[in-house]
UniProtKB/TrEMBL annotation:
Residue span, RNA-binding S4 domain: 2-65
Organism of provenance: Eremococcus coleocola ACS-139-V-Col8
UniProt GO molecular function: RNA binding; rRNA pseudouridine synthase activity
E.C. designation(s): 5.4.99.-
GO biological process: enzyme-directed rRNA pseudouridine synthesis
Taxonomic placement: Bacteria, Bacillati, Bacillota, Bacilli, Lactobacillales
Protein name according to UniProt: Pseudouridine synthase
GO CC field: cytosol
């Protein structure tokens, strides 16, 4: 038996707190009866409907995917461009990406059908480390690195403290490779942070998400997370 709001969140309806609001509003029925009690527990065989639409309970699945360049971090695209779910066509569960990577950004992307898990990882208060490696059209000096680490104002908001490290420089081409570790996941955040210190991102890859890394995977490959990896992410 599980609490109704937890089951709804797992099914991808909304965050657990939002699901509690939906229950309190009398929009949920269990076996045809309206339920407004937040502590109400349900079993696998119960028929749950939200706004008269049934929800389906699936076995939770968790995947680590190496997103290739020029692929949309979405389940579909109205312009017919490649999306990450094109690589998961034989997976029966209705999985979706946790957050997003830009169209031209490569690297580690998580996918799941566990709505509560996804909402927790995307919530800013958990501050999960995300490690990016960027090829830049400029060699960053120490002051630029310090600015990145102190936080940058982008779109009227200041980023949290970051970690920045130069991995390689090419004096002849005046280019560098910089590793940047951030906690948020704002739209185009990494590119905008580097733009704020006068650098343009030529290539961008996310190499780590929390304790997870790509290992020896190649673009387009994926693997299912191990139970201990899922537990470690939940404990973050």
């Amino acid at each position: 038996m599980e609490r109704l709001q937890k089951v709804m969140a797992h099914a991808g309806i909304a965050s657990r707190r939002k699901c509690e609001e939906i229950i309190s509003q009398g929009r949920v029925t269990v076996n045809g009866q309206t339920v407004t009690e937040l502590g109400f527990k349900v079993k696998q065989s119960d028929k749950i409907e939200v706004d008269q639409v049934p929800i389906y309970l699936e076995e939770p699945r968790y995947f680590l995917f190496y997103k290739p360049r020029n692929v949309i971090s979405a389940v579909s695209d109205d312009k017919g461009r490649p999306v990450v779910l094109d690589y998961f066509k034989h997976i029966d569960q209705r999985i979706y990406p946790i957050g997003r990577l830009d169209f031209d950004t490569t690297g580690l992307l998580l996918l799941t059908n566990d709505g509560e898990f996804a909402n927790q990882l995307m919530h800013p208060r958990y501050q999960v480390d995300k490690v990016y490696v960027a090829k830049l059209d400029k060699i960053l000096d120490k002051e630029a690195l310090r600015k990145l680490e102190r936080g940058i104002i982008i779109d009227g908001k200041k980023t949290s403290k970051a970690r920045a490290k130069v991995l390689d420089t090419n004096l002849e081409k005046k280019m560098s490779v910089v590793q940047l570790t951030i906690h948020e996941g704002w739209n185009h955040q990494v590119k905008k942070m580097f733009e704020a210190v006068g650098a343009h991102v030529v290539k961008l890859k996310r190499e780590k998400f929390g304790p997870l890394n790509l290992g020896k995977m190649q673009p387009g490959e994926y693997r299912e997370l191990l139970p201990n990896e899922v537990t470690e992410l939940k404990n973050l």
